[in-house]
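Q: What changes when manganese (II) ion is included in the input?
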Amino acid sequence: MMRQYELVERVQRYKPDVNEALLNKAYVYAMQKHGHQKRASGDPYFSHPLEVAAILTEMHMDEATIAVALLHDTIEDTTATRAEIDELFGPEMGKLVEGLTKLKKLDLVSKKAEQAENLRKLLLAISEDVRVLLVKLADRLHNMRTLDHMPEAKRLRIAEETMDIYAPLAGRMGMQGMREELEEIAFRYINPEAYRAVTARLAEIFERNKDVLSEIEKALSGLFEKHAIKAGVKSRQKKPWSVFRKMEAKALSFEQLSDIFGFRVVVDTVEDCYRALGAIHTTWSMVPGRFKDYISTPKQNDYRSIHTTIVGPSRQRVELQIRTREMNKIAEYGVAAHSIYKDTGGKTNGAAHAISKETNAYAWLRRTIEQLAEGDNPEDFLENTKLELFQDQVFCFTPKGMLIALPRGATPIDFAYAVHTDVGDTCVGAKVNGRIMPLMTELKNGDEVEIIRSKAQVPPAAWESVVVTGKARAAIRRATKNAIRKQYSGLGARILERAFERAGKTFTKESLKPVLHRLARKDIEDVLASVGRGELASTDVMKAVFPDYKDERVTPAAPKQREEGWSKIRNAAGMLFQIPGRAARKDKDQPRDGAVPIRGVRGDLPVRFAPEGAVPGDRIVGIVQPGTGITIYPIQSPALQAFDDQPERWIDVRWDIDERTKERFPARVSVTAINAPGSLADIAQVVASNDANIHTLSMVRTAPDFTEMLIDLEVWDLKHLNRLLSQLKDNSSVSDARRVNG
Ligand code: MN
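A: The predicted holo structure follows.
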């Protein structure tokens, strides 16, 4: 175990004016408080906070952070209290220790929602004082290093949590050294076999290439000497986890990975970086497409470096990273390095320890926190954040030249939402580098993106699966939820209007206000949406508004009557319906008043179609499905019989289609095809040449001579469908074609 004076000496090495008294006081206090407590390994408990402090000395942290590390488990595990720490070390340190205590209680909860809450609190705590993150990560790192002593069941969970949250978070904050070690240990526990295989293979390759590597190193050093560039050259080896992830993601073999070996060139100044690059590129040929200049455009986590791959002295591909000493420090320690630079020494000053506002890490943290303040579902938040943590980025520009950093794979929709939620919500198209491009286009570095907007737009729900940023996904989900709710309340308002009308009253939304309590709804919109969803009957609303209202609901006509003609019924929503008897089901021209207009699934009502489909031109009725909306059936559909005894679910509907409705409608047809080579192709050809789509096709029955199949088509209307059916029948490969339930 490290002695007290050793710890002080370590800090003194990089910070000569260290506040020794503070370190000594924290050391003694924590040691006394933990007393004879033991860790799972059998070591004295105090060895743990001490190791955490030691990790932080490697990152050259100031004495206040080191002291917090020594104290980080005292409130949780000993008799120490916040008040006592405040008194001995000041309230600023007390607050930090308490913050870490709260986070500890949140570790290793298995429920997703709680995990999300954990991450949320962690991010909020970091945004106030980055030292919480540094101590937390050092704490996690030491726990990972000693994971062997944990019960087996717990090990895997800790390793997974580390891989999911702490390692990416360290990476996002620019702390690559921390990230790599966390990943390496977590990988070993999560997938021991893969870890062993990859590690053994890497060692083997390294052994085999030892001579080549030292040859390259010499060649590089010689080159820099010749050009009088002061540079340190160090070979570096890819870590097992990143090799494994790359192999998995790109389905590559070991041999195909070109960048297992690399060299890092560290120079004094930015100018030297480019001089070194020039010297390298004029001596060896570069591999096209592998050059990246993260000095002129730093990564989101503030990483700066030049990357290039060359065909080296022994015809081998060599990856090179060129950077200054300071860039190297930031690449290794990230925000920790920033907080060192910001610390002016001497006194601890809260502001000095917040992440510097100019850093990209800070910008990311702020955006993420904004998003969690907006989002209402913590699980979504966890998903979104995890997604973002893992991704690399592209840099794009607005027409005015503003830089927008996005994760790799981002689309113009992500871009629009990154600019502003309003821009995303009203986005209908995009110009990429001056050309109109589909909204699914994957953006590339340097793209200039102009968003075309329309006030009438509601973001389609399908966008959710297209976008990659959490912000866009959360906003689309929110907009979709609102749009659906609006649809339901619109339908509810229509239903109530008509119920009031029948009772000789005029419906106003205001009339619902006094009865909200009676209806157990929180606001007027809620009443309307409930009626629209079929959860609340309009008769119940009527009874609430007019206490002497008589329910004139007509019971369904006797089955016999319904054999013929139309019978009138009133449904639970109070709407009067004409239900067609069997004879009348053929009568497609029955005129109706006040039917609800149907514009298709993209209209403003929550509508879906019966499995067998319904197309404009069909006489249709709707069946209310509580919670999902209206299902539209052609009136002759036998499936409607299932609803004969539930008149309250019927709703009168009519098509409301015009040339602006650019939508095809579903129809199921049954086709009997003669078994001959190419007959399926014939059928597909007829469908395609008639401007219809095949949605699904299934074989129902196959016999030696013919095959019966069901085809779900998408057609414009009934005329279109009938034309298609007759052409199918005329085809020599087809013996019969007819509509199912149509
Ligand atoms: Mn701890």
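Observations recorded in class: The chain has five domains: 4-190, 193-337, 479-545, 558-655, 665-739.
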